[in-house]
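S2.1 Query sequence (VWA domain-containing protein)
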Amino acid sequence: MRIPHKRQGGQVLIMVALSAVVLIASVGLAVDSALGYFVKAKLNAAVDSASLAAARGVTAGSSEEEQRTNARQSAKEFFDINYPDQFLLSTPTLNPVGVTFDKGIVTIDVSATASLPVSLMGVLGFKTLNVAATAQTIRKDLDMVLVMDTSGSLANNADAVRAAGKSFLNKFNSTVDRVGLLHFASGAQLDLPIKTSDRGFDRTQAGNAINGYKFGGGTNYSEGMWNAQDQLNSISQNNRSSLRVIVFFSDGSPSAFSSYFFPATTGNCTKAGALAVYDDLPSSGFATDGLYRINASSAKLTPETYCTRNLISELPTWYNAHNLPAQADDPTAREFPIVTTTPRAVSKDMSTRKLQWTNMHRASRNLAEAMASKARLENTYIFTLGMGAALKAKAGPDNEIGEDLLRCMANTADAPNRCRKPAEPVGLYCYAATESELSPCFTRLASAILRISK
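Output structure tokens follow.
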């Protein structure tokens, strides 16, 4: 029997040709799929970065229309940076960016597509491969108080402190974010009350207030913290933003606190005042200065109400600076202990300058930590910023490092174990060794706040 070789050869050629087409298509599918995967990943990253950039850009502008324009421009700039044209021969298209305002919440919607020519899949009739990516960023409403240290030790850094404070506030939305501003030294002074019903803040008023800062006096952390949380709590429960923040800046450890100092209703001690203690134990005389006004950064009480330091015989048991004199030791006002055994032992005895120096330093630190803890229990994030070598040095009666206190207040992951509370809001501490690092530190805090507001 004869075998039809020619017919059999023709069938093999057909089978080889068909197999080649399938093989080429399979290889093309693999190659083009891999290229599509890389394009998709690149496009996702570009869209995500554009969405975040738009959320930051929406803070600029004095009207919603200006803020939309700035958000869209920021989105385009970051998209173009993160997805260059002709990446793997693809052509990207950024769709119109959606910016929606709803009371204190801003929703950013970003989407984009990219088309790339196929390689071997062209044998199956395909011309291009299209991929798409979307991202949405919801910028929550924000209630924030900025607390600025204006004590005398910052006098040589005044210009840098003013510039950094204004730059920080410029990173927030003046029509959406509620912002309050105050500064402290021996006492605390409110510069910009936070709005309790409407949203936004007066950026010009805040900037003018910062421009007018004078630097002098002691360091009264607790008065700054008390006023900051009081501002946040002035907003009714049903009108509070979903994110509450205190940003606290200082260059040194606290050495003052405010109260009615006993005897509070005799002699000249008739008003609450801030009592400061020297940073170093003096060789003679008193370790404490006289009373300062609690509602001014550095101004002593008038002679009619001034309580001279030698009339202060003991410390009050509880912090009472914002209670009436008759309520100064009322049990209902017992929120923050002064005389205590923890975390630092404080007695009421002020009979010697060493006791004055020791008890005042410890009480100043205890109050700052206690007030920060209370704020966190009320769902407030605390972000702290410290500047200068003094915060790295051991100081006070217990040789403490100043920045450890700022870490405790912020409840950072690297805070000392005694004050670390993982169940409470975790903030951020940033250290600026010099004034040149101050603005970058403020920028880092602003970025962290904006990140958790999304």
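Confidence is low (pLDDT under 50) at residues 16-20. DSSP finds eight helices and 15 strands in the chain.
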